[in-house]
Amino acid sequence: MAFGPHALNFMTQEILDHPAYHTLVSLLECGMGLMLGSEMVWRKIRSYGKQIVVITLAQSLMTFIVVSAAFSAIFYWMGIPVFLGLVFGGIALATAPAPALSIVTEYKTDGPVTQTLIPLAVIDDVIAICVFLSVLGVVLRQTAGGSLPWYLIPLVVLFPVLIGAVTGGLAAAVMKKVSSPKGNAAVVWAGVLLTAVLTALANQYLMPLPILNFMLSGMVFSAVFANILDEAKLESVMKCYTPAVNACFTLIILNLGAPLDYHLILGAGAFTALYIISRAAGKMGGAALGARLSHAAPTVQKYLGMVILPHSGVSLVLTGIAISALSGGYSQYGDIVRGTIAAAAVINEIIAVFVARQGFRLAGEMGQGGVSAAAPAA
Predict the structure, then answer these.
(1) Which of 242, 110, 133 is nearest to 182 (CA)?
(2) Domain 20-143+239-362 belongs to what topology?
């Protein structure tokens, strides 16, 4: 926000509106998809077991239901389109595991809660993306005023999936023949560029509106080659391209923050409070329910919800996508989303880190060992 046109104006409105800038952002979104897709390895997800899947589904879907219901009710009362409540519900699903996992590393925690958190962090963002894309279809249908044919809604998902699958398969075929990790990382970024170009062409020539999701294309691209390559090779390649992915992520967050007017954040008090409280209720209640249904350890039932409250990362990217979908006559509602989530991201991160640390302490897992898994970037 400090860099944007409402503060120091280093990133002027002219820069933010320039077509070249939008092209760069699309490429960055595609590159950031690597962060999610490379974690969607089927053999890894399958090894987590039924219990983790049940807990993750329960807390994700309950969060969506609670947040969507809360915002839909207040929007109905205020005369704001009710479907906007689904947008908040879709964004609320995502969890930022990095703060909690940094506590795991710093305090060397280990036990049922720690061991549940790590795989949950991977699966949770996958579910969040799937639910959010479904919500996006509803939003696009509404904002297009009914002019968007119904058959285009599934194509919003299908085209990026097809593009990512083709480019991911090609990248995997090339990478199998390249032995150097840096050479393979170069192949990955060439694949990202090709994926972004094909998505842009599909946006321009196959869709009536530029509504295809570049992050989804990049996510599918990386998920395909991640599932084809063997585990050792994938890990060596990821070590080479992860710094660049983190740079993409940082620039995307900068792009989301720069247009923000701090007056919007100061004026988003009621919505921000509702968002933080309803999301916490969904996360904690859903985690407890899922843990109880799957017969997880008592400490997981009581305290897992406390360590999954951190919320930024992917949620801010989803916010950017939602704002772009709320165009035309609905742009004022995009300001509501932007201001609310921006304020919630700041306030919730401060609160959630302390709550997560207290959750590990109450679970009795402080100083019990530690984990070697690297914390995801989001």
Answers:
(1) 242
(2) Na+/H+ antiporter like fold (1.20.1530)
Number of CB atoms found within 10 A of residue 150's CB:
9
Q: From CA 283, how far away is CA 278, in angstroms rounded?
A: 9
Compute the average pLDDT of residues 328-357: 80
Rounded CA separation 253/247 (Å) = 10
Of 138, 157, 148, whose CA–CA distance to 208 is shortest?
148
CA distance 265 to 335: 10
Which residue, 313, 293, 296, is CA-closest to 125? Answer: 313
51: which 2 tokens? 């219990």
Confidence category of residue 374, pLDDT binned at 50, 70, 90 = very low
Q: Which residues contact 309 (CB under 8 A, 6 or more apart)?
A: 279, 280, 283, 284, 348, 351, 352, 355, 356
Domain segments of the chain: what residues? 20-143+239-362
Cβ distance 377 to 313 under 8 Å? Answer: yes
Residue-wise pLDDT for 257-274, tens only, equals: 787 766 655 655 788 889
DSSP state of 155: H
Position 288: which residue type? Answer: A
| pTM exceeds 0.90 for this model | no
Question: What local confidence, expressed as pLDDT, does residue 312 receive?
Answer: 63
**Residues in contact with 211: Cβ distance below 8 Å, sequence separation at least 6, in sequence order:** 140, 156, 203, 325
pLDDT in tens, 279-311: 999 999 999 999 999 998 899 999 999 988 877
Q: How far apart are CA 376 and CA 374, in angstroms?
A: 6
**Per-residue pLDDT at 148:** 56
Q: Quote the mean pLDDT of the chain.
A: 82
DSSP states of 2-68 as a string? TTSTTTT-SS-HHHHH-HHHHHHHHHHHHHHHHHHHTT--HHHHHHTHHHHHHHHHHHHHHHHHHHH
